[in-house]
């Protein structure tokens, strides 16, 4: 299901901003955009997402910022010694070649690479990962709450579609029952015509063939299975556990039974009901794709 959540936090001079988006997907597809340099952060976040969600294309991004004024300047004395030795060698070489160089100032030396560095406080760096993971939980809560809100609306839509399907199934059952006597009479008339036109035909074999045709045109089994599927779908919707994949499979079974009902209908009225049933099932299946 689609959802969005964002959150900001800070630890000392380091600030962060979370942004989380989700769209529909058949399975769970995670895309993480995290800063480098924090050991173990990505596996921990991935595990938290997999533990919380079962379906959806989820993108989670984290951006870190740091107030430069809060960073302490650190002098690397070993690097300073190396740079001074290099400068001294340059001066000696220049003098040997008759080249006069200006003396570097202290500021020039400090600007050499590695001599003066801005380093984060080590204690703050060690505490950053736990702080980020602690802030992740409320972000996931906000994201899940938005999904739940959409899920509640989808539940009402699907329940309405199930109610329509149930009504059509009962219409199909009534239509099939109303034409049962007609089918029986037609079968009897057909049997008499065959026996009159082909006196050598085996009556028992002809009766068996007609019985087989009658079975193939009977939609009782399809109606019964559709009723069972409706009950199963309602039970899944009432269960708070994730049910998207099960409902998706059940929708396929709905469609299969509706197809069979249409192929066996043998009457315009029952066929029309079957087509309406298929259309409603397709609409329900589209909504089910959004359910976790």
Structure description:
- It is built from 9 helices and 6 strands, in the order βββαββααβαααααα.
- It is an alpha+beta fold and about 290 residues long.
- The chain folds into 3 domains: about 5-70 and about 125-145, Ribosomal Protein S5, domain 2; about 70-120, no CATH class; about 150-290, no CATH class.
- It has a 4-stranded mixed β-sheet, with helices on one face. A two-stranded antiparallel ribbon has the order 5-6.
- α7 (about 220-240) runs antiparallel to α8.
Output the strand order for the largest sheet.
1-2-4-3
Number of DSSP helical runs: 9
Query: What is the averaged pLDDT score?
Result: 83
What is the total number of structural domains?
A: 3
- Report the strand count: 6
Q: Helix amount, in percent?
A: 55-70%
What class would the helix/strand composition place it in? alpha+beta
Q: What's the end-to-end separation, in Å? A: 7 Å
**H/E element string?**
EEEHEEHHEHHHHHH
- Any idea what the radius of gyration is? 37 Å
- Biggest sheet character: 4 strands, mixed
Percent of residues in beta strands: 15-25%
Q: Which runs of at least 5 residues are low in confidence (pLDDT < 50)?
A: none
What overall form do the CA principal axes indicate? rod-shaped
Task: Write a concise synopsis of the structure shown.
It is built from 9 helices and 6 strands.
